[in-house]
């Protein structure tokens, strides 16, 4: 028994001695892995810190050399190509202006914001080309006729599937107390050309014009476009003073389209009356003076009144037909519903038409309202002040 006990104890000691080296090997291995992971983490952290410092240095370098970089870009162009000499000189001049402004700022002078605003506004108001109109004029003194031919246009702005046409008006100056008063002698319209930015109309027009009337006459040509919704847009106009013409000599003109302006062809006497209790406005159409030189003894005219307020248009009203005389007397009043007085920001449009057997012809229009021209705005202000009292005033008829 004692021998058995001794053998068991020796076996236990052998097993214990055999396990001791195995467990210590694992411990050292785990420790080595931990040290390795720590070194890897420190290496990654060091790389990140170095990269961050490099980025900071690059940003500082870009800030320090930003002016030089902008100057190099201005000289070389956006795509690295050489700029034209004219643009290169302009870039140099702008750099010189920047240097001069920085020197002035160094003397404790503050920059003026109005200069920058004026520069930006000038850039926004740069004229855009409306197109070009070409035509020829020939005045025959023997026949007392003015011939207009060769109507062509190019460079017109595109509005999709648009139709182009030219409206021609012959105007004559009339001496009057109204500055710039003219009468429309004749009016024509060319044929319509579809889907073309450089239309050739191919029309010719003949105007009967006496030799003494040439000095007082002006030819007005308006280029119009119509889209698929039949909306009319006037692209621009060309005016020619016929005093420049010489008899029996053809004059070929090629002019850019200018902004369209209205012509005064008469005046109308209108009274306005404010009725705030019933929320109405009374428009009185009293008289109208026209300057049409046509034979109008057998023709009638009527007036159409349109009132719009807050982008809402009231139903228009028409006057009774009157004989077309130089002084047309209507003496009619029209009532329109209006919103509350504080919101009275309305527009009154008076259009006078001449009626033919199968059509109508616009003689002129007058516009009244708070945001109109000075005379129309003054009339509107007087109406607001004179509640329930009619205020009458003459207004020019424009076409």
Automatic annotation (TrEMBL):
GO cellular component: axon; dense core granule; plasma membrane; synaptic vesicle membrane
GO process annotations (BP): calcium ion-regulated exocytosis of neurotransmitter; synaptic vesicle endocytosis
Origin superkingdom: Eukaryota
Family: Belongs to the synaptotagmin family.
Protein name, per record: SYT11 protein
Gene: Syt11_0
Pfam family, one: C2
SUPFAM superfamilies hit by this protein: C2 domain (Calcium/lipid-binding domain, CaLB) (SSF49562)
Organism: Phaetusa simplex (large-billed tern)
Gene3D superfamilies assigned: C2 domain
Transmembrane segments: 28-52
Molecular function as annotated in GO: calcium ion binding; calcium-dependent phospholipid binding; clathrin binding; phosphatidylserine binding; SNARE binding
UniProtKB keywords: Membrane, Transmembrane, Transmembrane helix
Domain annotation C2: ranges: 129-255, 264-395
Record flagged with keyword rRNA-binding: no
Upper lineage: Eukaryota, Metazoa, Chordata, Craniata, Vertebrata
């Amino acid at each position: 028994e004692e021998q058995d006990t001794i053998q068991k104890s020796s076996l236990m000691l052998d097993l214990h001695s055999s396990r001791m080296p195995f467990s210590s090997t694992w411990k050292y291995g785990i420790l080595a892995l931990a040290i390795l992971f720590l070194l890897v983490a420190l290496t990654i952290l060091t790389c990140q810190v170095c990269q961050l410092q490099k980025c900071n240095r690059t940003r500082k370098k870009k800030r320090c050399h930003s002016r030089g970089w902008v100057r190099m870009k201005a000289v070389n162009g956006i795509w690295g190509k050489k700029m034209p000499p004219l643009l290169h000189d302009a870039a140099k001049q702008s750099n010189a202006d920047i240097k001069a402004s920085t020197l002035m700022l160094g003397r404790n002078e503050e920059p003026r914001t109005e200069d920058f605003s004026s520069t930006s506004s000038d850039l926004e108001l740069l004229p855009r080309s409306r197109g070009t109109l070409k035509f020829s004029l020939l005045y025959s003194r023997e026949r007392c006729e003015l011939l207009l031919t060769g109507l062509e246009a190019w460079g017109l702005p595109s509005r999709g599937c648009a139709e182009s046409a030219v409206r021609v008006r012959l105007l004559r100056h009339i001496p009057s107390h109204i500055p710039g008063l003219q009468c429309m002698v004749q009016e024509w319209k060319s044929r319509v050309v579809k889907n073309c930015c450089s239309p050739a109309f191919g029309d010719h027009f003949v105007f009967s014009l006496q030799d003494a009337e040439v000095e007082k006459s002006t030819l007005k040509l308006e280029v119009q476009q119509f889209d698929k919704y039949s909306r009319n847009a006037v692209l621009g106009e060309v005016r020619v003073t016929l005093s420049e013409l010489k008899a029996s000599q053809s004059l070929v003109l090629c002019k850019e389209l200018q902004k369209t302006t209205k012509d005064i062809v008469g005046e109308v006497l209108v009274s306005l009356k404010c009725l705030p209790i019933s929320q109405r406005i009374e428009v009185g159409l009293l008289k109208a003076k026209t300057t049409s030189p046509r034979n109008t003894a057998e023709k009638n005219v009527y007036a159409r009144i349109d009132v719009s307020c807050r982008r809402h248009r009231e139903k228009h009203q028409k006057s009774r037909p009157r004989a077309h005389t130089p002084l047309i007397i209507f003496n009619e009043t029209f009532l329109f519903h209006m919103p509350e007085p504080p919101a009275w920001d309305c527009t009154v449009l008076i259009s006078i038409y001449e009626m033919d057997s199968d059509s109508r012809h616009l003689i002129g229009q007058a516009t009244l309202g708070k945001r109109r021209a000075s005379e129309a705005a003054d009339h509107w202000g007087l109406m607001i002040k004179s509640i329930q009292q009619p205020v009458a005033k003459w207004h020019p008829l424009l076409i």
